[in-house]
Amino acid sequence: MSRHSRKNNPNEKKNQSLKILNEMSNILETGLDEETLSLVVSLLEQGVNPDALTLIIKKLRKERSLIELQTETQSSTPSFFLPNNFEEL
């Protein structure tokens, strides 16, 4: 396959565009990995409202942080239980 035909290949152009977007995303420290960025681009290409998508991503990140915090709190709490008759002892 010649260089010219590779440059005109739609998949090659899409891959190159995603690579550039990923580099920009990393520079801007968006926190989006390649797979997530690809999904975001796909959703935007399908007409999803960018503002709504931004809000959803922020909400999901907040929820993930809360879950991680809860998990950390639970793992740092002693895992012993007091006996049922503790007050009687």
Short note summarizing the structure:
The chain is mainly alpha-helical and 89 residues long. Helices cover 70% and strands 0% of the residues. The protein has one domain.
Secondary-structure topology with pairs:
Layout lengths: L2 H5 L2 H18 L6 H12 L4 H27 L13
Helix pairs in contact: 2-3
Q: How would you portray this structure in words?
A:
It is found in: Cytoplasm, Cytoskeleton, Microtubule organizing center. InterPro entries: MZT1. Its main location: cytoplasm. Belongs to the MOZART1 family. Helix 2 packs across helix 3. The mean pLDDT is 84. Helices cover 70% and strands 0% of the residues. The protein has one domain. By secondary structure, it is mainly α. The longest helix is centred in the last third of the chain and has 27 residues. The protein is built from four helices and no strands.
Task: Give the beta-strand count.
Answer: 0
Structural class: mainly alpha
Residue stretches low in confidence (pLDDT < 50, at least 5 long) are none
Radius of gyration: 23 Å
Helix content range of the residues, please? 55-70%
Question: Approximately how much beta-strand content do the residues carry?
Answer: under 5%
Helices and strands, in order, run as HHHH
Count of DSSP-assigned helices: 4
Quaternary organization: single chain
Q: Return the average pLDDT rounded to an integer.
A: 84
Outline:
elongated
Number of domains: 1
